[in-house]
Amino acid sequence: xxxxxxxxxxxxxxxxxxxxxxxxxxxxxNPPNMGLCMACFMRDIAGGLKLHSAAPVQYIRxxxxxxxxxxxxxxxxxxxxKPRGGSSPLIRLFLGFFAMIGALxxxxxxxxAYLRLAGxxxxxxxxxxxxxxxxxxxxxxxxxxxxxxxxxxxxxxxSGYIMxxxxxxxxxxxxxxxxxxxxxxxGPGAMHAPLIISLVxxxxxxxxxxxxRFCTIGAIRDIxxxxxxxxxxxxxxxxxxxxxxxxxxxxxxxxxEGQPIAHNNHLWNFLGMVLSGLAFxxxxxxxxxxxxxxxxxxxxxxIFILGMLLGAAIAHNFGLASLPKGVGEFGAAAxxxxxxxxxxxxxxxxxxxx
Amino acid sequence: MDYKTVDARGLxxxxxxxxxxxxxxxxxxxxxxxxDDETSFENVMRTLENFNLKVxxxxxxxxxxxxxxxx
Lengths: 354, 71
What we know:
The complex is a heterodimer.
Chain A: H1 8-27, H2 38-48, H3 62-77, E1 84-85, H4 89-106, H5 110-118, H6 123-143, E2 152-153, H7 158-175, H8 195-212, H9 218-226, H10 230-249, H11 266-283, H12 287-295, H13 299-317, H14 331-348
Antiparallel strand pairs in A: 1-2
Chain B: E1 4-7, H1 15-26, E2 31-35, H2 38-50, E3 55-60, E4 65-69
Parallel strand pairs in B: 1-2
Antiparallel strand pairs in B: 2-4, 3-4
């Protein structure tokens, strides 16, 4: 049975679908230029679970739940659910941790960077330049033989079901309004589409992203490393469709200043995304891809996204995350530490494994 | 026929494609690729197509596939 989404037109279709869903989620209540943001939403989930206490960003985002479970469902159906892992998990945990730190400095993961661009936020150009620079540095390691080691089929299939089960539990807590959860009453955490729309949107994104292997990091990485534009087609379709829909809906506001949930500190927008680019490329994929892989039973990706959750909690507890008015108190230091970490990982894990 | 082996099992994206590309450029002769992930399989097939290489056959073992490339 051939995978229709593996073709050029397939990934264009998938990217377009994901772009449409993103803008519609914005239209139906998600924050501006944030229809889908893996980093922001994982951070909101951290808040909802009270792993941090930043009141404006606390909400268990059903999109993340839907994306992961959507991937699980279609992967099982297509025989691609394969519990596996064991490729330097602790290193990956902190790659996820620092990828999140970098994203919270810029105020967006790569998906949101493309959406911000599609919304006219020119700070996304700075961010995407930083992302490309970070990815480029990562590809230098990859070309020299960087490898985090082989993943193996899990000793028990059970480990592949852990992340999907956690998502189901989160969903149950949301649906039954579990009193211990935090729900923002103001700020981005209070801006969300109705639960069922977010969930269905997420499930659909999970389907399209899993089938097409959509990856916003691979889109840039593959240009540098193998001169291949397949994934870029998908990311471009995503961005272009979002741009067109934004125009139609009147959501396109070009400029650097006063952009929604954004700041224009060019240096740290750039460096934050250098960190994210480096971390994601060494881990093998963008946060959306990591969530999809976790849904497929990849426990290394599961650990990566738990690292992101941890990073979000620490970022808000220690004042590392940016605010619309600028970079957080210790954000700069954290970014530099993170870049140091990823460079060490890149250097040490090159030519170590065959 | 002597086939060089490229074992891409369990390797993160984009390493399987890197290994295959390296083998295509630096070695001559036929090779076979061991792949245990559907995404990597699709990527490697696409890479072979880009280099105009013909896949002789693919075999399926328990939990991995083997792509045979003759040249």
